[in-house]
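Support reply, case 0932

Customer input (verbatim):
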Amino acid sequence: MKEEGSVFEKIKEKFPEGFISRHSFRGDDTIIIHREYLYRIAEYLKESEEFRFNILMDLTAVDYLGRGYRFEVVYHLYSMDFNRRVRLKVPLLEREAVVDSLVPLWSCANWYEREVWDMFGIRFNGHPHLKRILLYEEFEGHPLRKDYPIDKRQPLIGPGSKEDRNRK
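Our regenerated output:
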């Protein structure tokens, strides 16, 4: 692989409309990109002989309630061949909290995307089975959103609940 930072220049060169900004801190490279380019950039980083980021280590989100954009989806990629990491960040407005699924590239994205959907309510276009993974289906809302009411009562599920009585 080329000199440090070459991933920045290559992404900016290959996807100029998709590139927003970049930074590096203590060896961690971060590239901020537009959501419309996520799949193409991730695919390039995975399949390029120059980078081969073959592992999706983590996928999460951050809620920036009160900022210019509401959410940021964060992808941590790792290249086993070059022992290098890169972080992709995709800022999202609340009304457009949707990105493309990366399940076709990394099968483990299936679980990560379901967790982000469950906790933050961010949708993933093309996900094979986007449904709750940590909470029950009747759960209302997404508890890691900063505006989720801390004292919100949830529907009663289990023995003695209305749903349980209807099953009998």
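We compared this against your earlier run and they match. Two observations from our side: The first helix runs from residue 6 to 14. The chain has one domain: 6-153. Please reopen the case if you see a mismatch on your end.
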